[in-house]
Amino acid sequence: MIRVENLVYRYGSQGDPVLRGIDLEIKRGEYLAVIGPNGCGKTTLVKHLNGLLRPSEGTVLVDGMDTSEGRSLREIRRKVGMVFQNPEVQIVGMTVEEDVAFGPGNLGLPPEEIRRRVEEAISFVGLETHARRSPHDLSSGEQQLLAVAGVLAMAPDCIILDEPTTYLDPAGTRKVLDVVARLHLQGVTLVHITHYMDEIVETDRVVVMDRGRIALSGSPPEVFSEQDILLDLGLEIPSVTAFMKKLRQMGVPVDPRVLTVEDACREITRLLERRP
């Protein structure tokens, strides 16, 4: 879906690189998480994936289209949608329906196709009862769901989520993550930036960035097993991982690769059943 080759980026022609030789492939249908300390280049990287930024050096290809070529940008941005961390800055319509219709309307689609897409997107995120309301009357969580619906109505192949739960309470966070999980099941390619490790334990792959480079890459169990590296970068580890580590320090032979509450319950039940 996306190929990044030797990507270097500078803010200003004379500045130090923010990204330093990034090589990355994102497969179609993959759910990729990108984590790292503040200032490591996460957001700068993902802004290259839909052409919001163009490389100082190197290449970014989306379905074979070069993001540095202006004639390809419209199609690239249709294929790769982006949800930002502050939902309020993404609102453009007077009602929920108008807001979701903005993107497909800019594509020049027929009115009946726009209506179909708007209804499907609003239903998918669970905002049907709010369709005629002002977006500014919604909670922060509902506004973020609205932002996701607006991207969905563009029928993208890939959605980038740049810290989408930063401003949300636990209930709003859960709703957004539930929608993201359903998108993954439908085969949408996802790129998720976050500081909350518990949000990404069920992703396909995790990339850890540090000072403009990729420091680690692998499945969640592989990456979160490197706890010393993560802690040195100032990153947290998932709460279940920390709990299982504590059990191992106490002499309980649990599997250190367990990341979810459900798997932890099964692992502990398995050990209890083996006791004489």
Describe the overall structure:
This protein has 276 residues and is an alpha/beta fold. The protein is globular. It has helices at 42-48, 73-79, 96-106, 111-125, 140-152, 170-185, 220-224, 227-232, 239-249, 261-274, and strands at residues 2-9, 19-26, 31-35, 57-62, 65-66, 80-83, 158-162, 189-193, 205-210, 213-218. The strands form 2 sheets. A 6-stranded mixed beta sheet has the order 6-7-8-3-9-10, with helices on both faces. Among the domains are: 1-78 and 186-224, P-loop containing nucleotide triphosphate hydrolases (Rossmann fold, 3-Layer(aba) Sandwich); 238-276, no CATH class. 38% of the residues lie in helices and 20% in strands. 38% of the residues are buried. α3 (96-106) crosses α4 and α3 packs parallel to α5.
List keywords for this structure.
single chain; 276 residues; alpha/beta; Rossmann fold; four-stranded antiparallel β-sheet; 10 strands; 38% helix
Structural class: alpha/beta
* Global Rg: 20 Å
The overall average pLDDT, rounded, is 92
Percent of residues in helices: 25-40%
Shape: globular
CATH superfamily grouping of the domain at 1-78 and 186-224: P-loop containing nucleotide triphosphate hydrolases
Poorly predicted parts: none
CATH architecture of the domain at 1-78 and 186-224: 3-Layer(aba) Sandwich
> What's the story with the biggest beta sheet?
6 strands, mixed
Termini separation = 52 Å
Q: How many helical elements? A: 10
Enumerate the strands of the largest sheet in spatial order, edge to edge or round the barrel. 6-7-8-3-9-10
Q: What is the CATH T-level topology of the domain at 1-78 and 186-224?
A: Rossmann fold
